[in-house]
């Protein structure tokens, strides 16, 4: 699959000829149960980077997984000799590279060219990187200035000139991996994103950009000029793991296999596990864990902590064991975020909770939330300030940035923001627990949250 076409080796040309933009969308904390299928699709897509075709395309691959999954796929790719010998990976993270200048410095560091002056590289290992990359006089000059002097515009100009001076016969392909891709969209003027995509589309140099983000509406964050450099081809691999399937997995993970040597203990243990999974306390614990994270690794940690309480004197797992294990391993970051929200944002969360109760978990939009909030204001106008609609919209968008709510559809370009469907990523217990700990929470707000349907 990865072999270079016949005759290509004789020209010693770079195998990566097709430039693809991937934006890998992954909700943080979600499971990776689709590794096999994702691996096959991702491998087949990334293999296009190793084709000799002169086409240039872009792709958005949407799936539920972790960055570790992408690393596993890249690790398999790099086991191929031709790929490992040619590809130069550059990893950037929106949480670390908070502006474009820092990102340029990180590119410099990862390409091992910090010690470049003029057209000389002082460390021999750096020379091996520079020879096969782009013309040394350009890349050396650009990365030196990026790291140490000059304005951002000058630094970026040098880097872009270096990339564009490369050609297919002598340049080494560069693979840019942008984790937290949506945060790069918040950089000033989106300069780095635009220029990376512009170079990739120009097909002047073998460059691939892989973006990872949990935002399904990430395209709405991009400026028009940046969107114009992306072909909008998307691949969605959305996990649909239900709670029943999640519960079945717990049962199968805890059950002993049929070939267990002690038949009596095998039957007693498996009967106990079946009874355990039907206990309402256990179901509540697992339901909360499922709502927080569908990742099987976190589930395995929960089960391991519960199993660690089993001993010769206590040869079975009790419901209280799972409850205690949940308290140990599950730090509810979302509930902690609620403590830092404004009163307006907290009221919007409560309005969404009531909509969840009324419509049994169905998606809703901002207009529905705003109407629910206005009903509360009409009853309790003396205790809560009457906010203008633009202010409420800003608060709603902030909740979306915090990932307390998520968009249900990525194709929202033609839908007004007020009517885009979203889903609340908190359950009832998380909201009520946060309200109890919220500093100086108005009594009317607490009573509204505890009322049946608002």
UniProtKB/TrEMBL annotation:
Keywords: DNA replication, DNA-binding, Nucleus. It comes from the Eukaryota. The keyword DNA-binding applies. SUPFAM superfamilies: P-loop containing nucleoside triphosphate hydrolases. InterPro entries: ORC4 (IPR016527), ORC4_C (IPR032705), P-loop_NTPase (IPR027417). Gene3D superfamilies: P-loop containing nucleotide triphosphate hydrolases. Residues 248-435 form the Origin recognition complex subunit 4 C-terminal domain. The keyword Magnesium does not apply. It holds the Pfam family ORC4_C. It is found in: Nucleus. GO terms for cellular component: nuclear origin of replication recognition complex. GO terms for biological process: DNA replication initiation. GO terms for molecular function: DNA replication origin binding. Belongs to the ORC4 family. Component of the origin recognition complex (ORC) that binds origins of replication. This is Origin recognition complex subunit 4. It comes from Salmo trutta. The lineage of its organism: Eukaryota, Metazoa, Chordata, Craniata, Vertebrata.
């Amino acid at each position: 699959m990865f072999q270079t076409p016949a005759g290509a080796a004789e020209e010693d040309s770079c195998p990566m000829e097709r430039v693809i933009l991937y934006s890998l969308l992954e909700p943080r904390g979600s499971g990776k149960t689709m590794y096999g299928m994702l691996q096959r699709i991702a491998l087949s897509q990334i293999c296009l980077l190793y084709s000799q075709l002169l086409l240039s395309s872009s792709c958005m691959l949407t799936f539920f997984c972790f960055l570790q999954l992408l690393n596993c796929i890249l690790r398999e790719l790099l086991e191929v000799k031709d790929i490992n010998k040619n590809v130069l990976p550059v990893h950037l993270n929106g949480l670390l590279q908070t502006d474009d200048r820092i990102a340029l410095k990180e590119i410099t560091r990862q390409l091992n060219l910090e010690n470049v002056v003029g057209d000389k590289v002082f460390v021999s290992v750096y020379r091996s990187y520079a020879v096969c990359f782009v013309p040394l006089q350009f890349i050396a000059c650009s990365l030196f200035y990026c790291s140490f002097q000059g304005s951002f515009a000058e630094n970026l100009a040098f880097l872009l000139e270096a990339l564009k001076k490369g050609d297919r016969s002598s340049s080494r392909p560069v693979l840019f991996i942008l984790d937290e891709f949506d945060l790069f969209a918040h950089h000033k003027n989106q300069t780095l994103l635009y220029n990376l995509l512009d170079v990739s589309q120009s097909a002047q140099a073998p460059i691939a950009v892989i973006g990872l983000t949990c935002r399904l509406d990430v395209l709405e964050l991009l400026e028009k000029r940046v969107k114009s450099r992306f072909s909008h081809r998307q691949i969605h691999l959305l996990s649909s793991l239900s709670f029943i399937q999640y519960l079945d997995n717990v049962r199968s993970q805890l059950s002993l296999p049929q070939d267990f040597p002690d038949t009596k203990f095998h039957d007693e243990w498996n009967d106990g596990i079946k009874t355990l999974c039907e206990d309402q306390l256990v179901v509540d614990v697992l339901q909360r864990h499922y709502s927080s994270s569908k990742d099987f690794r976190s589930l395995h940690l929960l089960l391991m902590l519960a199993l660690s309480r089993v001993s010769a004197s206590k040869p079975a797992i009790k419901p209280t064991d799972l409850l205690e294990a949940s308290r140990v391993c599950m730090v509810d970051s979302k509930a902690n975020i609620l403590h830092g929200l404004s009163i307006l944002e907290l009221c919007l969360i409560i309005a969404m909770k009531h909509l969840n109760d009324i419509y049994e978990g169905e998606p809703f939009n901002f207009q529905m939330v705003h109407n629910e909030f206005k009903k509360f204001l009409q009853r309790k106008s003396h205790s809560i300030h009457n906010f203008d609609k633009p202010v409420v919209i800003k608060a709603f968008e902030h909740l979306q940035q915090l990932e307390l709510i998520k968009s249900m559809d990525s194709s929202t370009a033609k839908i007004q923001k007020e009517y885009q469907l979203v889903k609340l990523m908190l359950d009832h217990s998380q909201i009520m627990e946060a309200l109890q700990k919220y500093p100086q929470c108005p009594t009317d707000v607490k009573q509204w949250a505890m009322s049946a349907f608002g």
